[in-house]
Amino acid sequence: MADVSSSDLHGQDGNASGPARVLVDLDAIAANVSALCRRVGDTAVLAVVKADAYGHGLVPSARAALGGGATWLGTAQIGEALALRAAGVDAPLLAWLYAPGAPFRQAVEADIDLGVSAPWALVEIAEAAAHAGRPARIHLKIDTGLARNGAFGAGVDELIEAAARTQDGGRVRVVGIMSHFARADEPGEPSIRGQQDRFEAVYEQAQRAGLGIQIRHLANSAAVLTNPSASYDLVRPGLAIYGLSPVPQLGTPEDFGLRPAMRVAVDVALVKDIPGGQGVSYGHTYTTVGATRVVLLPIGYADGVPRGASNCAPVSLDGRHLRISGRVCMDQLVVDVGDLPVRPGDEAILFGDAGRGEPTAQEWADATGTISYEIVTRMSSRLPRSYAGAAAWSL
Q1: What is the DSSP track for 161-183?
Q2: Is the dihedral of CA 162, 163, 167, 171 positive or negative?
Q3: Which residue numbers in the chain have pLDDT < 50?
């Protein structure tokens, strides 16, 4: 097992060994992708690595996902896809979120597929393709009921008609059609089947218009794990490739054959004994019951720890699950450890792998009233990343 720090990978300042850090197991990412590939059989897998790979690190995570069997990579923004190309990643790439004036020419020149939701984007992409001297590959993005990105209602007809005209002009190739579920994490919810029916109907409409679409994709992580009928030609798992459950009410990562890839560790900076009745941190929202020992951890909301974790989120120290005591501050937080023999330099784990006896991102999500996606993604770039596994995937 090789360890590689974020400073080694990206030239960032900072020591990947402390005082607070994100530890990423690339073997876990590869194994999770392999498990998802087995689940969907012959269907291709696009690993979603947007948002710095959900906080795990864009390039290392992308390479690990490809090592695990993904054949495509997906990013929300074009800049993320261009960063992968700049790092030498040559796998098929798809980006789907942008505004007018986006770097379409660079995307076309870098062989990046683009999701298209409206005719204005076709106009700009076609112009970019003309300057690039090659046709752009596009995937029509259809809103089948999420009411977010994608063509909706009469806009679907307009998009298909515009795509057919633009393709006839030789500036684009319509290779895919895509949509996104609103409630895939609620198996059996009627809107799921309704969205699939709408998706299939629009696909047939596009085929009748002569678009010759080759790739249909709709399934996110929750659908991959719970709805085989939505796999079509390509699936787009995100959260699951990082070893977290998108349907925690139905099963843990372990239940789905997944292993969390991220651990957040921090070294104890200070240990001191304080009396009973002592208020702790800003506002004294926590007061000690009796004489006790507290430790200071140099990590706070500037590092991505939710302020809402105050007095509720778990921390593991010396093999015991404790709880943040008092308000989370910008750079630090306090934990009441009772009579534990903790010393400065001891390692605390905010969240990691339940299989190692650690608190989980899902426990943090439950404690703070959010979802595990947000917990891992919000970990700040101030926290250096350290990578382990399979020679760190030759990074």
Answers
A1: HHHHHHHHTTSEEEEEEE---SS
A2: positive
A3: 1-2, 6-15, 391, 393
pLDDT for res 13? 35
**Residue 389 confidence (pLDDT):** 87
Which of the residues are catalytic?
50, 282
**At a CB cut-off of 8 Å and minimum separation 6, what does 392 contact?**
2, 3, 4, 26, 60
Instruction: Please give the C-alpha separations between residue 348 and each of 100, 187, 304, 314, 321, in angstroms, as whole numbers.
Output: 46, 37, 16, 10, 10
13 class by beta-carbon count within 10 Å (0-12 exposed, 13-18 middle, 19+ buried): exposed
Helix (H) or strand (E) holding 112: strand 112-116
Judged by DSSP in three states, 200 sits in helix
| pLDDT given at position 17 | 60
Closest CA to 185 of 145, 225, 150: 225
Closest CA to 273 of 338, 222, 226: 338
**What pLDDT, in 10s, does the model give residues 3-38?**
555 444 333 333 456 699 999 999 999 999 999 999
